[in-house]
């Protein structure tokens, strides 16, 4: 009678298991980094869109009043912006946008109401739309610093 050693052909060695675990860990890390980058770019796209919407509302206000609004009358995030000087006044924004991370957008207007600047803080340090093409460049506005902006045609962000 011949004895067969079955123990050699069963299971995985410790080295094989460690190699598989290392590969899975590496793949998970790469996937997580890609996912976070995509989220960051998505939030930045929303910020840019928000500033475009506010910019359109500011232009509508300018068409109605002949000047840009004083920063004091701009409603806060989540509030409606309507011309309060007349009953059922023009609706400029149904709801003022809110930054995805809660950092306030900054609005500046000159004293004569002839120009304005709007700023946001982008997260992606490689975004080509940052001020001066460099996301480390920041402008002070209010109590914060911002690296992305839009402005009226007679101003530069």
Short note summarizing the structure:
The protein has 157 residues and is of the alpha+beta class.
Characterization of this structure:
- With 157 residues, this protein is an alpha+beta fold.
- It has a single domain, classed as Glycoprotein, Type 4 Pilin.
- It has one helix and seven strands, in the order H-E-E-E-E-E-E-E.
- The strands form three sheets. It has a three-stranded antiparallel β-sheet, with helices on one face. Strands 1-2 form a two-stranded antiparallel ribbon.
- A hairpin with a 2-residue loop joins strand 5 and strand 6.
- The longest helix is centred in the first third of the chain and has 52 residues.
- The radius of gyration is 27 Å and the shape is elongated.
- The protein starts with 13 loop residues before the first helix and ends in a 6-residue tail after the last strand.
List keywords for this structure.
alpha+beta, Glycoprotein, Type 4 Pilin, two-stranded antiparallel sheet, three-stranded antiparallel sheet, 157 residues, 1 helix
Largest sheet: 3 strands, antiparallel
Corresponding CATH architecture: 2-Layer Sandwich
Discrete helix count: 1
Which oligomeric state applies? Answer: single chain
Could you tell me the strand content as a percent range? 15-25%
The CATH first-level class comes to Alpha Beta
Outline the low-pLDDT stretches.
none
Shape: elongated
Cα Rg: 27 Å
Number of strands: 7
Could you spell the SSE succession in H and E letters? HEEEEEEE
CATH topology: Glycoprotein, Type 4 Pilin
Taking the alpha carbons of the first and last residues, their distance comes to: 91 Å
Strand order of the largest sheet: 3-4-7
Helix content: 25-40%
Overall pLDDT score: 90
Structural class: alpha+beta
Total separate domains: 1
